[in-house]
Prior knowledge:
The protein is α+β, with helices and mostly antiparallel strands. It is 23% helix and 32% strand. The chain contains 15 helices and 47 strands. The strands form 10 sheets. Strands 19, 20, 21, 22, 23, 24, 29, 32, 35 and 36 form a 10-stranded antiparallel beta sheet that branches. β20 (534-536) and β21 form a beta hairpin. The protein is globular, with a radius of gyration of 29 Å. The model is unreliable at 162-166 (pLDDT under 50). Bound molecules: zinc ion. The site of zinc ion has 5 residues, from α11.
Amino acid sequence: MEKIIGKKKVFVISHSHWDREWYxxxxxxxxxxxxxxxxxxxxxxKEPRFNSFHLDGQTIILDDYLKVRPERxxxxxxxVQEGKLRIGPFYILQDDFLISPEANVRDMLIGNQxxxxxxxxxxxxxxxxxxxxxxxxxxxxxxxxxKYAAFGRxxxxxxxNNQVFDNEKYTSQYSEMWWQGPDNxxxxxxxxxxxxxxxNEIPIDKAEAKKFWDEKLADAEKYASxxxxxxxxxxxxxxxxxxxxxxxxxxxxxxPDYEFIHSNFDDYLQAVSxxxxxxxxKINGELTSQETDGWYxxxxxxxxxxxxxxxxxxxERELENIAEPLSTMAYNGTTDYPHDQLRYAWKMLLQNNPxxxxxxxxxxxxxxxxxxxxxxxxxxxxxxxxxxxxxxxxQINTSKFPQDSKPFILVNTNGHEKTEMKTVEIxxxxxxxADGKPEDQYEAMKQAQNDLSEFKVIDQTGREVPFxxxxxxxxxxxxxxxxxxxxPYMALYITIQxxxxxxxxxxxKVLALSxxxxxxxxxxxxxxxxxxxxxxxxxxxVSIKDNGSLNILDKKTNREYDNQLIFxxxxxxxxxxxxxxxxxxxxxxxxxxxxxxxxLQNNFLGAKIQIQQTMMLPESADARLEYERQAVxxxxxxxxxxxxxxxxxxxxxxxxxxxxxxxxxxxxxxxxQMKDHRMRVLFRTNLKSNYNSADSIFETVKRSNHVSDSWKxxxxxxxxxxxxxxxxxxxxxxxxxxxxxxxxxxxxNNTIALTLLCSVGEMGDWGYFGTPDAQCLGKFTFEYxxxxxxxxxxxxxxxxxxxxxxxxxxxxxxxxxxTGKRKxxxxxxxxKSDSFAVTSLKQAENSSGNILRGYNLTQNxxxxxxxxxxxxxxxxxxxxxxPTKSLNMLEPAEIKTYKxxx
Length: 902
Ligand SMILES: [Zn+2]
């Protein structure tokens, strides 16, 4: 017995890493899941010594299974409650970086709710396959009430005898380590140093078992910091090993000095945490394989199939920043909030957020199905938002407006003030089908259109607001009253444009379109000088050069930024995971081409200038690439070049400078007919800095502009959410984007390269999977922006906030003239903070109060000023009480969730 003391314990955890969709369509994987679960439930009946099965950290697997086998629900329930099936804590296994902070929270929140329906969740933040890990994970897990983390990528284990230097933040001598976030939260973490398959397919034959265990035990011991060794019995889509208990009996016989335990994460982690050594290493912040050769960081998945990223961003904004805040405002203090509809939409969206899905690194069938899910989630969001804004409009008093005017409500649903040149459509007159034949009504409205006179736009005091008449239109419309049959009609619509300046967070105002007898004096002020090709307002002076590139003077700092907005096209012979430039390194730049310039708008509201460049680009890679794909030649060994055949690509960019904005907005479109290439837009900052700051998950992450000594990849792609910034001690440049998640800092003058589109023809990874859709042929539009700041943090964070609010337009709806309890110009709440980036305003899950969440954009202490604070407490991600030191103070990089009611 004395030998048992000090015996090494081998914890064998049976699992299957379940990519719901990847190199096969969802249903192909799904049908295999049914078999896995059937086998598993049968095994629980047959083999009482089978401790448990780890269900991959995601509860959606249970829904997937029960869709096909609803009759086994009670069996599943029983096994979860017995601890045989270990479920949760997440809803899906997401990609950290490509989904919003809030999507990450909802994955945890819904995962927790789903787990609770069944029983307990595993107390482990599980990121086995995630392509790099977000820096705020330690704080986020704490806020999700999860004690441990496990992950497979991002850190290089160095082995027992390798020294770990203090300055190496991304290596660890052990497979267990402390992981510390930017707010100094720490979580005990396990790296799958020998991957999450190191105990897969354990042999039962003695000779084979000896060979297997000699190797596997040595590998595990090389990194383990304690006498508790982890063996992961499973891998991607692995069927359950039915004889694993017999295999462990064989192992026990062969290795009496070890204790083999068929186990689970809860027991393993408890054992580890009791015996961690004092010298356990610490890693910091985000883990993106900084200390590797740089080829397999998989960061290029941030630009693979860019249409997915664009759609994902739009749906996230629709749910997080439009539907939820509008519903919170409209249904405050009531039970009318559409919890179930929103959760349904969130689940639909989250189904697109697993790492193989949102990363765009699956086969075409998978990504086609995703587009349907995006559309469904978006439609639910639009429906909820429309209902909510109509409800809110009905609560707002519009009775002061003249009876013959048409009032409309404008709502800023952002948690920060917003300035926007806004286009609004107003229904001016309506002819019901009930009152006449459709064609007669159409004619009547056409007549009304011809007779239109002058208009004015007024606020609730009757004061005129400057606007521009854009167009009028007659077309069919219908109402769907909640208590009556549908009402079809013809209507005359009028479109106007106006500048909304510094609308406060979560505020609204009512304006109205009204007839006037006075002929409007056209305002003469213009913001574009066509002769000099200069766009100018109080903040910026932009000169457009012959080749379409820009020279921008930031008047705040009196600094000039030359060579902005240059398009760069290079060959791509890689795959959906990794960009690999063609070996000829043939690069085409728009700066070598004459641009055509056209004025689209130039009036007192602002200017829109169109720049058009036609680039001659290789139609694809040369023929060698097809051979290299078919022969599964590693992308680092490929030799393909670009084709000699050139075809034209016309790039159209609309630049907007509005009267009151201190930023330039860009909308670039083209019809991509080339294959095997990458298109980026370049902004040369010319600033001396060793770092850049990028918008990540609940974090503005500071990254080096330089690579480590071990780095071999000629490129250094990085992830971003809404913006990337470079600055020196005098100020800097922020490039905002809508769903363009990849950037790179080029050594040439610290140029920010923003990837617009990547075209590749194969999935990559472990074989050849052709993906014609990943060539991204067809029409694309890309939205991005540039803003400048001075040396103050406030000025810098303002450009960050602006990049965020650029993604969410001010919402509007027409309303009638009626009384209401809310004022015509007011706000749901007051909120002021330069550094507090709001991610969510929603009703609490249990309906008793509202939730406001955000985080500190900076590494400095900051504060929040709001009228909710006196009625608020702080809660965590799963909305349980979570007291913090102070309600209004923000610690560096702190994430804060307020629960409040009015
Ligand atoms: Zn995976």
